[in-house]
Amino acid sequence: MTETDAATIRERFREHAFIVDEAFATALQIMLALEKPLLIEGPAGVGKTESAKILAEVLGTRLIRLQCYEGLDAMAALYEWNYPRQMLRARLSETEGTTLEEREAQIFGEQFLLKRPLLEAITQEQSPVLLIDEVDRADEAFEAFLLEVLAEWQVTIPELGTIRARHKPRVILTSNRSRELSDALRRRCLFLWLPYPTLEQEIDILRARVPGLSERLSKQIARLMQVLRGLPLQKAPGVAESLDWAMALLSLHRDHLDASALEQTLGCVLKVHEDHGVLNTHRAALEPILQGATSTPEPGGHSRETDFGFGSVSTPGR
User: Fold this and answer.
1) What is the CB neighbour count within 10 angstroms for residue 131?
2) Which of 80, 118, 142, 217 lies 20 to 30 Å from 274 when distance is taken between CA atoms?
3) Predicted TM-score of the model (pTM)
């Protein structure tokens, strides 16, 4: 991508079926221009990780992902030695009449080095996109180490010396805010808050990512998601759940959501048992969205109750 203005970024992302608004595209434009890391925070499932994957595709470069977790240390993120190959080489060299120093130089050569994401990112011939995913899961010690790497773009391996970045990676960090990140890391990065999409944005996302989805169904899913995210759920559904739901409904050959379809596919959206009870308590909020699809007229035009797994909803006759 030779042009990196916000409008071009939006268009190129849309070509890859990923919808970004002007604020997001502008943040990416500034990140590329300043060559600074971009920290993206927001609820789970809104597309933070996917945005880095699409950026790599748009730029025509490699995506390198470092998945953070509790207990992650510098060595696991940088490199390790291929011990089995080193042992085999050491045994073979014993019969070659080489000195101990020569054997050590051989077994600690680059051919025995296993690069992990951070070292891999700074040794590429073309600037990659480095995704540091869920950085809030790592502890503060690793965060301090990460600050040094982001500042200098070089690492020191005792047996090999200092390795400097050939080309500075484009860096995206993501966080679900499971813990507060340090001020030092935040100062090092540009920042973007990625919220849940608006109703119109979610409809656009569904149409772009799920070809063949009817307009009626895309609007129903988006409207229901707006309602669900407003409930006191333990795990609010994200865009990933919207897409799963849409594809599940398509696989069932549904062109609209009715009570039966909701009962069959609710597990695509709500992943905690207690949240089904919450939805049962607030089931009246779904009626305006479902009533056009779920109502079944009784003789005389009376309504009947339709059960869809978490309670019964009184649906008026057409």
Assistant:
1) 26
2) 217
3) 0.81
Query: Tell me: the pLDDT tens digits for 103-126?
Result: 666 667 677 788 899 999 999 999
Q: How far apart are CA 297 and CA 152, in angstroms?
A: 70
* Residue corresponding to tokens 């190129």: 12
Angle at 288 between CA 282 and CA 291, to 5 degrees: 110
Q: In 3D, which of 9, 75, 46 has the Cα closest to residue 225?
A: 46
- How many angstroms separate the CA atoms of 79 and 235, rounded? 36
Is 45 in contact with 240 (CB distance < 8 Å)? yes
**Residue 151 has which token pair?**
């500042």
| Among the listed residues 36, 122, 37, the one whose alpha carbon sits nearest the alpha carbon of residue 79 | 122
- Per residue in 67-78, pLDDT tens? 999 999 988 999
* Helices of type H across the chain: 6-15, 22-34, 48-59, 74-78, 83-93, 100-107, 117-121, 140-152, 183-188, 199-209, 215-229, 239-251, 259-265, 273-281, 287-294
The amino acid at 224: L
DSSP H or E run through 310 = none
CATH architecture of 6-82+116-193: 3-Layer(aba) Sandwich (3.40)
